Amino acid sequence: MFHTLQEYLHHTKGVSYLVAGAVLVAFIGFWLFLVGRERRE
Fold first, then answer.
1. Closest residue by Cα to residue 14 from 25, 26, 6
2. Strands annotated E in the chain
3. pLDDT mean values, one per 10 residues, the chain (41 residues)
4. CB burial readout 3-39, b (16+ within 10 A) else e
């Protein structure tokens, strides 16, 4: 699949950015859920 170390590291870095972006979006969604719940009470 990967022929060189540079290709492997480039792929790994891309995947880590995607995971970090997904965690950030999930955290923002969870934060908005909590803040919205406080306003209703």
1. 6
2. none
3. 94 98 98 85 61
4. eeeeeeeeeeeeeeeeeeeeeeeeeeeeeeeeeeeee
